[in-house]
Design goal:
heterodimer; A: D-Maltodextrin-Binding Protein, domain 2; D-Maltodextrin-Binding Protein, domain 2; 15 strands; about 45% helix; about 15% strand; B: about 325 residues; mainly alpha; MetI-like fold; globular
Chain lengths: ~425, ~325
């Protein structure tokens, strides 16, 4: 009896230990190669991605792709933890700000010559290049432009402005008029503190956000940018700072355009689909307003996301094959469509063009019509992922009257320069 | 089976046996109890594993990491005291987060304890259905730290939230309280005060400990309700107040969820709700500065240990344990 009991106890202990030590299996029993693939997004994207994984596995029966899905706010947190634990997924989705953080620290594999990029837009492809290495392949492109809710505009009795010539002043004045025309529940515009907006605003004034390892924006530009928000808030062209912060935090579906309570808003072109759906109204895309006398609108093609492979992967060949499939196979694009931006592979795009939903056809037409004006996104340096937070924080302080614009602009530049210096 | 049965009968059996001999040192454990001790350790293995792997291991690791530059994505590089120096000399957000957290603790803890004590006194009046009220008031303590309540809070104090709906009846137009830097922290303080249930239950237990004869004696001496509270209740309750104070100061210094959810993880608007732990978290996981975050964690340990130490030292002057001979 005694020995029986001892044996039982040992078994329990062994089981506990075994439970702690499981995992880390490279190949499964059935001889398939297990490929881990991390990405973020909405439920809709998860469904599409599962479909594309299934289609890939059908073509490649020896590879078992395991999707590791998370929502956007916690994506980088969990990915960084996995990389730190030497447990990086084989194929990782990053966006342009993550490129330098991961690639610059040796976490990514160089994909040059490993994935067929012959049919890709070479200009956009360069946004996956960091330190001379092709760490990433863009999934597709977006443009941030001014989205207009035409139904709300008509209701206010205003005409669609000519986006080739309109200035920031025109935009602010028109917003004020629209708000005044309504009963107080509809606003001319909503605004965003998106760092991309500041980049474009600065580009119109001939300044680059990143310039030779430093922030290339002048304090005057930042202050002029903030002055626009102040003007909008003061003239009630937009909601007040606190209300606007609330709307911004609530996301696309709850936006003013989405709820038909606002006419203008700056959004990525791939958000046109969601905005059209939730508002049920006719929306249109415009170029951004320009600074007085500026030669360009400062707009650019932004890669929506990047496909990357871990430098520590045990299955580089399979990882490359999967990425190749995602960017080059019309079958994959036929499923994903424009969910990760408009395809940059000319052959793939030609094949799926007619399948795109109306909103995406619309943004494709828009992007094509202004293509010659568009610059290419720059890859932010290491530390660039802090920028969004820095810009948002000081903008909040200024619009809510916590800090003077002069002081905030100086501090913003100080902090931003320190962030990319380290 | 036989074994456990015999064990039971041993425990249950009345003890006519002589009292344990008071020899020198402890009585030597019998072979049997030594064997049972061994069994106990085997059963405790999962707990020990947890303690060492999940608690002590990471604590030691974070002490090491606090002296390194560690991005999570590549190897940690030893930098000595750099993180600590940087924190105290060139990081205004560190001070900002410390300020926000201190205001939060200093305002919300006394309010919460005062509220808890007041309600405990009310409930102690021998109310009917006491256990019902006790549960109702305790509920927020269970929920207060949860994600759901934080989201609810965001809605209640939003621009179109409940608070503004009520104010609108009186013709007052409110703002979005959680998104206004002037009011955002106050909403979190309110949330903390609302979770008064836990200290209240402890106060209730403390009030029950005070012998009613003291009150009888006091009323014979002509003391009114206020005088009784001041001279009997309060002094005898000081150990409980002290206990609650220490506990709540530690707990609220480590607050995280409320701010994380209400501000969408930003500590905004413009850092007005940037709790210390939230800043630590964003340094570690969002800005790829895990070494710095580890250093912040150790500074927090020292701060909390210091505050608790001060609390204990100060307690000599105001906490009254009944058996004081002084």
């Amino acid at each position: 009896m005694r020995s029986l009991k001892t044996a039982a106890l040992l078994a329990v202990a062994a089981m506990t230990l075994a439970a702690c030590g499981s995992g880390g299996d490279a190949a499964e029993g059935d001889g398939k190669v297990k490929l881990r693939f991390s990405y973020w997004g909405s439920d809709a994207r998860q469904k599409l991605t599962e479909q594309v994984i299934a289609a890939f596995e059908k073509k490649n029966p020896t590879i078992d792709v395991v999707g590791e899905f998370s929502d956007w706010p916690s994506y980088y947190e969990s990915l960084a933890t996995k990389v730190a634990a030497n447990d990086a997924p084989d194929v990782m989705t990053l966006e342009i700000r993550g490129l330098a953080e991961y690639g610059g620290r040796g976490a990514l594999a160089d994909l040059a010559g490993k994935v067929n990029v012959a049919d890709l837009d070479q200009q956009v492809l360069s946004t996956g290049n960091f330190d001379g290495k092709q760490y990433a392949i863009p999934t597709g492109v977006n443009v941030m432009g001014m989205i207009v809710n035409k139904a709300a505009l008509d209701k206010a009795g205003e005409e669609l402005p000519d986006d080739k010539t309109w200035t920031w002043d025109d935009y602010i004045k028109l917003s004020e008029k629209i708000t005044k025309a309504g009963d107080g529940s509809t606003f001319g515009t909503e605004y965003t503190f998106n760092q991309v907006y500041l980049s474009m605003f600065a580009a119109q004034r001939g300044e680059k956000f990143y310039n030779n390892g430093k922030i290339g924006i002048t304090p005057e530009t930042i202050k002029a940018w903030w002055a626009n928000f102040d003007q909008l808030i003061k003239t009630k062209g937009s909601p007040d700072a606190a209300k606007m912060a609330e709307i911004a935090a609530a996301g696309v579906e709850q936006s003013l355009i989405g709820t038909n309570k606002g006419v203008f808003g700056m959004w990525w072109s791939n958000q046109l689909g969601t905005l059209s759906k939730v508002s049920g109204s006719e929306l249109t895309l415009l170029r951004l307003p320009k600074a007085e006398g500026a030669s360009s609108h400062g707009m650019f093609l932004q890669p929506a996301m990047h496909w990357t492979a871990s430098s520590k992967t045990e299955h580089p060949a399979e990882a490359q094959k999967f990425i190749d499939y995602l960017v080059n196979d019309p079958e994959a694009a036929g499923i994903l469509l424009s969910d990760r931006g408009l395809p940059i592979n000319s052959k793939v795009l030609a094949a799926v063009k007619d399948k795109l939903p109306p909103a995406d056809q619309q943004s494709l037409t828009f992007v094509d019509s202004i293509k010659s004006e568009l610059a290419t996104a720059e890859v932010p340096p290491k530390g660039g992922s802090k920028m969004e937070d820095i810009v948002r924080r000081y903008s909040e302080a200024v619009t809510s009257g916590q800090q003077s614009a002069d002081e905030a602009a100086t501090k913003l530049l100080e902090e931003a320069n320190a962030a990319i210096a380290g | 089976m036989v074994d456990s049965l015999s064990l039971k009968s041993e425990v249950a059996a009345p003890a006519p046996a002589p009292a344990p001999k008071r020899g020198r040192g402890r009585p030597r454990p019998s072979v049997r109890s030594r064997r049972e001790g061994w069994a106990a350790y085997v059963f405790l293995i999962p707990w020990f594993l947890g303690l060492f792997l999940i608690t002590i291991g990471p604590i030691v690791a974070s002490l090491y990491l606090s002296f390194t530059d560690y991005s999570l994505l590549d190897e940690a590089k030893w930098v000595g005291l750099d993180n600590y120096v940087k924190m105290f000399t060139e990081d205004p957000r560190f001070w900002a987060s410390l300020k926000v957290t201190t205001i939060y603790v200093v305002v919300s803890v006394p309010l919460q304890l005062g509220f808890a004590l007041a309600l405990a006194l009310l409930l102690d009046r021998g109310l009917r259905g006491l256990s019902f009220y006790r549960s109702i008031y305790y509920l927020p303590s269970l929920l207060g730290g949860s994600v759901a309540i934080a989201i609810l809070w965001r809605k209640i104090f939003g621009a179109d939230g409940l608070v503004n709906a009520v104010l609108a009846i009186f013709g007052i137009q409110g703002t979005s309280y959680v998104n206004n830097p002037d009011t955002a922290l106050s909403t979190l303080i309110l949330l903390h005060v609302w979770t008064f249930g836990a200290p209240m239950v402890i106060f209730l237990a403390g009030l029950r400990q005070i012998p009613s004869s003291y009150y009888e004696a006091a009323s014979i001496d002509g003391a009114g309700v206020v005088q009784q509270f001041k001279s009997v209740t309060l002094p005898l309750l000081t150990p409980i107040i002290f206990f609650n104070l220490v506990l709540e100061v530690i707990k609220s210094f480590q607050s995280f969820t409320q701010s994380f959810i209400v501000s969408n993880g930003t500590g905004g608007p413009s850092d007005s709700t940037l709790f210390y732990t939230l800043y630590l978290y964003s340094k570690g996981f969002k800005e790829y500065e895990m070494g710095y975050a580890s250093a912040m964690a150790w500074v927090l340990v020292i701060i909390i240990a210091g505050l608790t130490g001060v609390n204990f030292l100060a307690s000599k002057y105001w906490v009254f344990y009944g058996d004081d001979s002084k």
